[in-house]
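Side project, low priority. Logging it here so it doesn't get lost.
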Amino acid sequence: MSETANTIETQTETAPNHAAELGAHLRSRRESYNFSVGEVAERLKISTKQVEALESGDYTGLPEAVFIRGFIRSYGRLLEMDAAELQTQLDTVFPPAAEAAHRSATVASSQFDFRDQQVRKPFPKWIFGVLAVAAIGTAIYAWQSKSTADTQRAESNSSVPVGQVAPPNLGSGNMAVVPMDASGQAAVTPASDTAAASAPAAGNQEMVITVRYRSALHVVDAGGKIIFSQIVPAGSEHRFDSGAPYQVTIGYAAGATLNYQGSDIPLQSHIRNKSATLTVGGSE
């Protein structure tokens, strides 16, 4: 027989009719509400056998007294019983001092009973290290795969073969027609003072940028004015002839070339995270 049954049996010997009286009261209230035992069990979320045990006052097989008190309180609220009256009846069936002593004895005995306890092995901490290394390796592999895929996609979208430079942009806006004399020499046509003052010296500040892949290109002149800022197509060439020193940023600088005053300027040392940023001309 369980300790709960022993406690209830002891209480029944001292007060044999209290539990039965309380159960009869519960049953009477239930019948007045036209509730079946099954309906009460469903609403209280307990079994029909437990409802019948509460109404009979025979608590054998039920959990500890604290749970029985909880069942009866829930049953009383369902039947709209007076809370104070119900508490008085519960204290008669389960004297607080006896219930506290029973709870303390149950806790004490469970603390020192190791017969059914399993020995738990500590979780190996080295597994966390393995998982961390695996996560880092996966992240590096994903980053490298993405970088390779971006490069291959850029190369496939480029219209300029590797190792070649796109033809110069000979638009009407950057060409001039020079008349020739009878000897085949370029005829010199006097220009007005205003035109001579506004025209830059030929080749003095000329900068030519050729990008291999589609990229952002940003150029600022000596006065801090943005003279160019666009997404340019792969293989395109861009010329600037005034405003040095230039502040140049090439968003995707792989394969790009930069020529200033007829001299190539290496970009490799200026590339950080695929972008190149440098100052061209002036005191450089």
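Brief comment: The domain at 201-280 is CATH 2.60.40 (Immunoglobulin-like).
Revisit when time allows.
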